[in-house]
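Lab notebook: predicted structure, single chain.

Context: the supervisor wants predicted structures on file for every construct in the current expression panel, including those that have not yet been purified. This is the next one on the list. No modifications to the sequence; it matches the entry in the shared construct table.
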Amino acid sequence: MESIVIFSILTLALGLILGYAAIRFKVSGNPLVDQIDAILPQTQCGQCDFPGCRPYAEALAKGKAQINQCPPGGQEGADALAELLDVETLLLNAEHGETKPDHFVYVDEDLCIGCTLCIQACPVDAFVGASKVMTTVIAKECTGCDLCIPVCPVDCIFIKELKPTLGTFVPDLKRIAHG
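Prediction complete. Output recorded below exactly as produced.
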């Protein structure tokens, strides 16, 4: 009987230690997926054949996707992914679309009928509106995925290119360094 009590106490103590260690030293997800996801543009457009940037990053980390499937990331994104994953760089795959200038969409409010199809299509909730009420876009939230454009029955959604400003301009450091 004494040995049962001793083993029970020992088992309980070791269980508590393992439980504490599991919480204390927990790794939340794959750090490589987080690094890949940080390189991706977060447009959530699905052009890469995945429903968003995070699933694409997970597939890349598992070796189940190519680094050149993200048109919004452009060739610079593919090159950065190649460097991170230590693989040969690939040219952007045209089958997934073409790289477009940074842009957002806006709604011509005079034409909008309030069908809310754009709201349903938007992966980042950049639209504000309700059924049978004019809809508008929160420009700062729009990622430029353009998923809303084909679903609009009255063609009231248009693209506006983002022009660099002093606050948003990012110089091409590689071009500057190499002459």
